[in-house]
Automatic annotation (TrEMBL):
InterPro entries: YkvI-like (IPR038728)
Signal sequence region: none
Record key words, sorted: Membrane, Transmembrane, Transmembrane helix
Membrane-spanning parts: 7-31, 37-58, 78-100, 112-133, 140-162, 182-202, 214-238, 258-285, 297-317, 323-343
Protein name from the UniProt record: Transporter
């Protein structure tokens, strides 16, 4: 059970980046739909749990060491090549965005130069990526209970002090809606996009787990925790929609409204989530090309980290951010192949056991 909780915590830690923890993504994909956003959050929870379980168990059964091992097996050479290329670019791109996000957070909260915050995050990320995968899982998983605690405090405060009823707040929320998609389409795209974010590290983490039931339970636990976080943040923002409309970091605004200390704790939480995502993305990117036990791995990590820092300074993040829209649909393709592979690998495992008996 301990290993499953670690996998579940790491699953959450990979996905919950700056956009999620700040509340920006939740407003866009859920809160802006009013009460239907709650249904969307529940749908996303179910999706995260099912797909997380499938990725974890298939990776465990196939003993994967990078996303390449799994992608080519489940989708064939041609489609596998395209998915591998897009995922690899996406991993590096998201890491760069996290470096830039750390710089922006440092500047906004502490008045420090953007480059200083970015380089601090790069150094911390590079140092962590040089550890073995078990240590990385433990580090990423640690931030999840901390974030759950902070978000729960903000949710209780927001609901207890709301000025309008939920019905009135829902009307304001729907007026701020940008997407023209239905609530369920948006929820599915959000889930599939984040499957793309977490897919690579999940395959690495769970490929080293020899018990596929333990790995699968980790995926389910992570999905439930993600859904719980979405619901908590969604209720917090919906309760204060008349105040947070148009704000860049709505959860930080609510935290500061409680007390500056809570705001500071939320800032550390944001930085922790940025760090988690940066580590997950950079590690997954590196093991796609170089095995971590090779002598050249550490040198390559330092070089790629340096390139990521430079990219974060020259506005590369704007270019890479365009991949986010593409990844929602790429994630849907991945999900179809993953679920199909889960059924196939499960059947083969049953046949194998029958022959063994």
């Amino acid at each position: 059970m301990k290993k499953s909780l670690q996998i579940g915590g790491a699953y959450v830690g990979i996905i919950v980046g700056a956009g999620f923890a700040s509340g920006q993504e939740i407003v866009l994909y859920f809160t802006s739909y009013g009460f239907k956003g709650i249904y969307g959050a529940l749908l996303a929870m179910i999706g995260f749990s099912i797909v997380g379980m499938c990725v974890a168990q298939v990776s465990s059964r196939l003993h994967t060491t990078s996303h390449k091992d799994l992608i080519y097996q489940i989708s064939g050479n041609f489609v596998g090549f395209l998915l591998d290329l897009i995922l690899s670019l996406f991993l590096f791109g998201v890491a760069v965005i996290m470096f830039a996000g750390a710089g922006a957070t440092f500047q906004q909260m502490f008045g420090l130069p953007i480059w200083l915050g970015s380089i601090c995050m790069v150094i911390l990320t590079v140092a962590t990526v040089m550890l073995d995968v078990k240590n990385i899982i433990n580090i990423i998983a640690l931030a999840t209970p901390y974030l759950l605690t902070i978000v729960s405090i903000i949710a209780i405060y927001a609901i207890a002090t709301m000025d309008l009823t939920f019905v009135e707040q829902a009307v304001i929320a729907q007026q701020a809606q940008i997407s023209g998609n239905s609530w369920w389409v948006t929820a599915l795209l959000y889930m599939s996009f984040n499957v793309g974010v977490s897919f690579s590290l999940l395959t690495v983490m769970c490929g080293s787990i020899r018990n596929d039931k333990v790995a699968g339970m980790g995926g389910i636990i992570g999905g439930i925790l993600l859904g719980a976080l979405i619901l908590l943040i969604n209720f917090s923002l919906l309760a204060k929609m008349n105040i947070i409309v148009g704000l860049d970091i709505p959860m930080l605004a609510l935290a500061n409204e409680i007390h500056p200390i809570v705001g500071l704790l939320m800032t550390f939480s944001l930085l922790g989530m940025i760090y988690n995502t940066a580590v997950g993305m950079l590690y997954s990117f590196m093991v796609r090309f170089i095995k971590p036990n090779r002598g050249s791995f550490r040198v390559a990590v330092i070089i790629i980290g340096g390139l990521g820092f430079l990219a974060s300074l020259v506005g590369f993040t704007t270019l890479v951010a365009k991949l986010y829209a593409v990844m929602g649909y790429v994630g849907l393709i991945l999900i179809i192949f993953i679920i199909s592979a889960w059924f196939k690998s499960g059947t083969k495992k049953i046949v194998y056991y029958k022959k063994g008996n």
